[in-house]
Amino acid sequence: MPFKRIATRLGVSPASVHLWTRDIRLTPEQEERNRTGPTGPHSPERIAKRTAAIRKVHRERRLAAQRNGRERACAGDHLHQAGCMLYWAEGTKDRNALCFANSDPHMVRFFLRFLRTCFGLRPDGVSVRLNVYTGNGLSLREIERHWLSALDLPRSCLRKPILNHFPTSSSGKRRNKLPYGVCTLRVKRSTEIVQHIFGAIQEYGGFEEPRWLDGTPRKPRDPEASPGESPAAPSARGGGSRPGPTPPSARRRGRLR
Q: Which of 27, 56, 153, 216 maximizes the CB count within 10 A of its CB?
């Protein structure tokens, strides 16, 4: 039993209880029971209760931000409307992070103006990551200068770039290559801003999207599945599990044949 609980029952100070019990040595079993027992701080019931309380607090904050966005949407601010619609089209839909990516410097600059004007975003609150291809006559330094100049941001906003990344669906051939690549803006500690935008988008569009507030519903866990085991996805061709990806060596052998 904790010192404070003993002190409350006896009507004395916790220091007095510590003085009376400091010579008592608990066994490892007793210490474990004190931590994980029904009244211990690490008991599953208490952990679940604390987790539920924390989730409720953060959900209320997200909901309040969405309400603010809905109210702002009724003010007739054209820049606010355009910025929210642009994020609806090009932004990620993470409920706790604002991330916007595009290859058009004018579009990215406009979206950044929306964030600066409507939310007071400062340069130290945004990071920039570039996805670029080399070998197009421009150096990485030139590409970085191009984006920083277009967005009026200091070099401290840059993060490590992604170089020559081809999507898994690509054949490896560079088609319609963008000379300056793609710029991704990420706003730090942006839950309130992105939830504001989500609320405004729903108000402008006249619909409700619960996933932006609460996330994607979790699938119920199979009680018969062992811990760490995930159920096999059914195959589109019938029963059984879906076959894994073909190893690169096998694909090369198939092309040689």
A: 153
